[in-house]
Fold this sequence. Notes:
The protein is mainly alpha-helical and 499 residues long.
Amino acid sequence: MTFKYGVDRLNIDIVNGISDGSVTAELCQEAIDKINTSRQRVDKMAASDKAVYGINTGFGPLCDTQITPAETNLLQKNLLITHAVGVGNPIAKSISKLMLITKVHALSQGFSGIRLETVERMLKFIELDLIPVVPEQGSVGASGDLAPLSHLFLPLLGEGEFWVGDDIVPAAKALAENGLEPMDLHAKEGLALINGTQFILSHGITGLTKMRYLLDLADVAGAMSIEGMQGSQSPFREELHAIRAFAGNVEVATRMRRLFKDSQNMADHTDCDRVQDPYSLRCIPQVHGASRNAYNHLKELVEIEMNSVTDNPIVISEEEAISGGSFHGQPLAMALDYASIAAAELGNISDRRCYLLLEGLHGLPRLLTTSGGLNSGMMIPQYTTAALVTENKSLCFPPSADSVPTSMGQEDHVSMGSISGRKLNQILGNLEKIFAIELMYAAQAVDFRRPNTCSDIIEQNHALIRTKVAKLEEDRLLKPDIDAMVEFVKSQAFTVTLN
């Protein structure tokens, strides 16, 4: 397929496809016409004696200071330079690229007054894989992501830095090597570039992409742990969830039934005398399902945002540009915080399953070793999961519940959504490690149930684990095993899609 910027609708799969090159994207004539029409309107306003915010006035608390046409270009350049005050490590190159892609789409809808030449230069950056370097800290998520977006577009002026492959090089050098000259920005362009939520949005896209897989992996890890514990299938029966039909719960229960399909191991203890399992086994549909509901909510909002125009002012006619608050990050900030709690809870329940597997109950040896005493077995990795879940809990404070006024009080309520987006991805990174350890534990437990076999999907994932991590017979250095498991999770090597 070919995606048309400014005309078609983005979703998570399409935007990721454009980023990785599997989806072609272009600026079609319809979008070009919309960009040019909007630009003509801005040129007319810029030449007018009537003050129009951001077009022939200063910014923020200087909105009542009118700028002459002769000063307009310098004003736009100064805007980018003065707002590029980000600090900290660079965000991932992939996130910077998503920022470029989603910004092009927003600007191409014809409400921003950007020049066609400027959009084409942004597309050239994407084509050449010249991705601007953006510091991770400095946005309060209110006038959009002012500092990150300023860094994203400094290279238009020949300032700032690019990622070239895995290296960081000065923008002026990279432009020269590719035969490109620095650009001048015209009226409204600087403001159109740096007002917007693309930093928050791109962290949301990245988080959703990770979280979609981790939600599925949570079910697989939980099912393998239940196989190891020889727990009950009853809590996943269809009729139970039909009478409390939260969408996430129903989906998880359906998946759990499939994950136990034709399991000889589960059938082996059908008539055992255990009445019920602990909550971390029994309540998987309720806990994992609630996290799925949060994911679905964030996905809905992110896909609205990636098809929205979030700069300011919005040019709606030849005579009018509305100065509003479409750049405010609150709609995403609150949902990102909700998703952070959802991701952290997946880790909490996973850690509890790790602990259960070590207790030596229901036919499993204590610490998942038959030679305890001299050997510690699998005791210590659960310390790591405990540390990770506590770190995630500390990351769950909602930045969107806070606001620090900026810009001399003109921006007196801010979303802090940029921090929400960054923290979600930190939590998901920790969650990958927690699941790696649970799956290592669960595979060890399943080995104690042999010769019983599990479902095809559990057996397939168990076999993958055993390609890098041998069953623990005597104590050995477990760090290489954990590292291998984390790599499996990060590379999405486990089978999580069910037929």
